[in-house]
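Repro case for the chain-ordering regression, as requested:
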Amino acid sequence: MANAVALRVEGLHKSFDRLTVLRGIELEVGEHEVVCLIGTSGSGKSTFLRCINLLEPIDAGRVFIEGEEITAPGVDVNRIRQRVGIVFQAFNLFPHMSVMRNVTLAPVEALGMHRRDAERLGVELLERFGLADKAAEYPDRLSGGQQQRVAIVRALAMRPDVMLLDEVTSALDPELVAEVLNVIRELAAGGMTMVIATHEMGFARDIANRVCFLDEGVILEQGSPERIFSEPQQERTQRFLQSIIEAGRM
Amino acid sequence: MTFGGEAPEKYQSLPQGSYTPPTGDRGSKILAPLRAEGARGVWIAVVSTVVFFTVIGLAIVNSSGWPAIKEAFFDPEVFWDSLGKILEKFWRNIFIFIVAEVFVLMLALLLAVMRSLAGPVFTPLRILAAVYTDLFRALPTILVILLLGFGAPSLQIKGVPHSDVFWAIVALVLVYSAYVAEVYRAGIQSVHPSQVASARALGLSRRKTLRFVVIPQAVRRVIPPLLNDFIGLQKDSALVAVIGYTEALRQAQIVSAAEFDFTPYVALALVYIVITIPEARFVDWLVARDQRRRQAAGGV
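-- result from build under test --
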């Protein structure tokens, strides 16, 4: 569906000590494409996302962002990370800074943006996601949903080419999930390229252009949401979706 | 911890901001149980307190040696006379511990950061910081003051003051930096690895992550123990007396010798008490205010 390739991963391997987590991931994500990663806990979804922006050193394989290999030796990782935003399950906002400072820290300190411009951008983004009145608050005074929306805004403030979302609703109370999912829907509508690890199958079906089923460190099966959810080919995919249905989560 | 952002994956799922530093309402805790007891409890508390301290007071006052002690330690005339002279020299102590504290806070932070650096390249720095802390925590402060205060001025190093008090301050800075470095290091280690990970993920360099994310959080958490060491330093400024520098303790010794009376020591003791207690309350207030600002009224 997309013309240019935003993200390409070739033969990505990663292990922690003796535990092998990723065994050769191959993935290509087009510009403006939304890819959802599904799979059991421990299938390597989080590790995969963390490898894409080099938070984890990889053992083998290559990663390209907009055609540039970021795994090549001598690449400035800070510059790469500025182009790839990541949002974590546990928000990880900076508790000693106001919401506005959380959002503007990286644009000012990493991109060298003028503080006033960064704050203008911050106000704009916070307004867009209904957080304008929280700019002066500290993270601990916000609800989980608000904190996660701030974390998304914080990543967006770097104007990334690609956003990686790592189970961003898993730490939230059920009634707070919708507000965060709506933010992601709006990002998708705005054309943001995203790779989303999620357990929200309904959401994945709804938003994804493509769904990838991760199993034992490889992408076992991928395709349109309709195909993956209605007629999965692999036995493991079928079993995984069956267990999700039995748990009442789809 | 490392600053490389290679936080173990398992930490990612832990909630943030769950650490609550002590609020430090130490004073009120003593009286707090009374609230639950009601009027009868308050009466019992008052009576038992009055009886307890009266008995101790009477025992002291009626002991056979009391008149002599009263004469030697609590002579009002000597007290007021010596207090003025001691206060005059106490400014020197204030100068010593303020100057020393400023340098301690900087040197100790440098040491703590050196010791926390990840990466094989930094091994010599880590070793240096570790040896430094081990060495200066092992040495008695008074010994370092004697060695530097008497030894270093004779070196006549160019461009460095030759005064003994300069070297005494250096000695205090060296010793206290070792302690305070450990306090800072504990604070740095208490900052969750996921904080580093998210700062690095935003494209901040190691140095900026340390400066904007790790150190500010670490320092906030260790303010109460930092105050502890500051009070220690404040009191140890009296050790400078051993090299013959006339600060408050030396002054008290001089007056005491001239008057054949120990009251000057009591006067100096009171001076230390009077300046220390408000400091502790002030820091408690600072910590509580910082917390109120960051957290919802109901607490965590």
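Ordering looks correct now. Chain B touches chain A at residues 5-7, 9, 12-17, 194-195, 197-205, 208, 212-213, 216-217, 220, 293-296, 300 (CB under 8 Å).
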